[in-house]
Design goal:
Largest interface: A-B, 40 and 41 residues
Domain ABC transmembrane type-1 (chain B): 15-215
CATH superfamily of chain B: MetI-like
Helix content of chain A: over 70%
Largest sheet of chain B: none
Structural class of chain A: mainly alpha
Pfam families (chain B): BPD_transp_1
Number of helices of chain B: 8
Shape of chain A: flat
Radius of gyration of chain B: 21 Å
Oligomer: heterodimer
Transmembrane segments (chain B): 15-35, 56-74, 94-110, 152-174, 194-214
Shape of chain B: flat
Order of helices and strands of chain A: HHHHHHHHHH
GO molecular function (chain B): transmembrane transporter activity
Distance between the termini of chain B: 43 Å
CATH topology of chain B: MetI-like fold
CATH class of chain B: Mainly Alpha
Distance between the termini of chain A: 53 Å
Membrane topology (chain B): Multi-pass membrane protein
Strand content of chain A: under 5%
CATH architecture of chain B: Orthogonal Bundle
Structural class of chain B: mainly alpha
Order of helices and strands of chain B: HHHHHHHH
Chain lengths: 228, 229
């Protein structure tokens, strides 16, 4: 029933695809986090000029499917080919890898900003009052009291977001990239070993997922090691 | 604002199919969620094991892989089995059915966790009181447990629905003519991909916002008659 030969033969190719999956995940996560921090702070501002754009960005990228965001950037940019060429940017937007990373980065940036916002708001008021009473400036208060506490509160949810993003990278296979899912599709079109290859792919994703979960739990324990 | 060149109706046709796939998947997800939470909370070891395996595996695999596995894998599996019995058949799974099965199966795992939390937050004394009054298990479940669990589960189920409706966009990959696929047709025909994908994204955003409002109303309705609101 299951043809183990076909799995064994194609495992190296699948692992190569997994490498691209991890690469895109890490790049998007890092840039996404760099975007998320200022947007989370803007979202908490009392000035409409700051919170409104942040609110719109977060709502749009959390309220629409990632697949649409991906197509909007990859296929949608074609509508402005002339303008992008004049700016010297067309080379980037023609590239599936670039568009995939941009879409995933903007997407995870919005989700991460929302997680951070919730965590910053969940920092106990007493901690902030105490910091103020000590005469800390706003910047010092954020650096020493609010952000360290918020990171601990956000950590478990951020771990979930990392897992979701890693799995979401599978969509880049739709725009021709050869990540784990893309490689699997290509192998199946040659061998017709549908469930052998897809089940092997699923197992590889499971392994990556629970490796991420394991690492995040270990770090969580370290973050909270001062607590009994 | 948008020059749709007469393709607006096409997108609306797609929207109805998106909503139809979404609702059928949600029904399946709720059914699987109730079943899964019952299995997780039961004293039967095998039921525990099966339910834990279900939620662990589904949460570890991308939606796209599961969708492709259902759409291409199930027909292949049936054909292979038929071949063993000496029948040569070719079957295709209908994309609507494949999409509903795959998405319902995935979000059933998330609903399982929602319902498990909901049933756990009902005081055990409630069930004891119902049993003491002579209700059988089924009646106690229907009259006492389920109405309260539904109230506790509503916020979580609302979240599941909002993620699920966005996941239906994936079914366009297996050629179901829902919103996303109709958008692709319109984008290619008019050579205005940005305009049409932006419009499609705003329609999805509208679905999300409407769902949020409905969720608030549903929670108010479910909590009517509850003290301390």
């Amino acid at each position: 029933m299951m043809d183990l030969e076909v799995i064994w033969e194609n495992l190296p190719k699948l692992l190569q695809g997994a490498q691209l999956t991890l690469e895109i995940t890490v790049i998007s996560l890092l840039i996404g986090l760099a975007i998320a921090i200022p947007f989370a702070l803007m979202r908490l501002s009392r000035h409409a000029v700051l919170w409104m754009p942040a609110y719109a960005y977060i709502l749009y990228f959390r309220g629409t499917p990632l697949l649409v965001q991906l197509f909007l950037i990859y296929y949608g940019s074609g509508q402005f080919r002339a303008e992008l060429s004049d700016l010297g940017l067309w080379g980037f937007f023609r590239d599936a890898y670039f568009c995939g990373v941009v879409a995933l980065t903007l997407n995870t940036g919005a989700y991460t900003a929302e997680i951070l916002r919730g965590a910053i708001q969940a920092v106990p008021a007493g901690d902030i009052e105490a910091a103020r009473a000590c005469g800390m400036s706003k910047v010092l208060m954020y650096r020493r009291i609010i952000l360290p506490k918020a990171i601990r509160l956000a950590w478990p949810m951020y771990g979930n977001e990392v897992v979701f993003l890693m799995q979401a990278t599978s969509l880049v296979s739709v725009i021709t990239l050869l990540d784990l899912t893309g490689v699997a599709g290509r192998i199946i079109s040659k061998t017709f070993a549908v469930y052998e290859i897809y089940i092997t792919t699923a197992v590889l994703y499971l392994i990556i997922t629970y490796a991420i979960v394991f690492v995040f739990r270990r770090i969580e324990r370290r973050l909270n090691r001062h607590q009994a | 604002m948008f020059d749709l060149k007469g393709y607006g109706g096409l997108l609306l046709d797609g929207l109805w199919l998106t909503i139809a796939v979404g609702l059928s998947s949600m029904l399946l997800a709720i059914f699987l969620g109730l079943l899964g939470s019952w299995a997780k909370l039961s004293r039967n070891r095998l039921a525990n094991f099966l339910a834990d395996t279900y939620t662990t595996v589904v949460r570890g695999i991308p939606e796209l892989i599961l969708l492709l596995l259902v759409y291409f894998g199930i027909p292949t599996l049936i054909q292979d089995i038929a071949q063993r019995f000496g029948h040569d058949i070719t079957i295709d799974l209908n994309p609507f059915l494949a999409g509903t099965l795959a998405i319902g199966f995935i979000y059933g795992a998330f609903s399982t966790e929602v319902f498990r939390g909901a049933f756990n937050s009902i005081h055990p004394g409630q069930l004891e009181a119902a049993r003491a009054m002579g209700m059988n298990r089924l009646l106690a479940f229907r009259r006492i447990l389920l109405p309260q669990a539904m109230r506790f589960a509503l916020p979580g189920l609302g979240n599941v629905w909002m993620v699920l409706i966005k996941a239906t966009a994936l079914v366009s990959i297996i050629q179901l003519e829902e919103l996303m696929r109709k958008t692709k047709i319109a984008a290619n025909a008019t050579h205005q991909p940005f305009t049409f994908y932006l419009l499609a994204s705003l329609i999805y955003l509208g679905l999300t916002v409407v769902s949020m409002l409905l969720q608030q109303r549903a929670e108010r309705w479910a909590n009517r008659g509850v003290a301390g609101r």
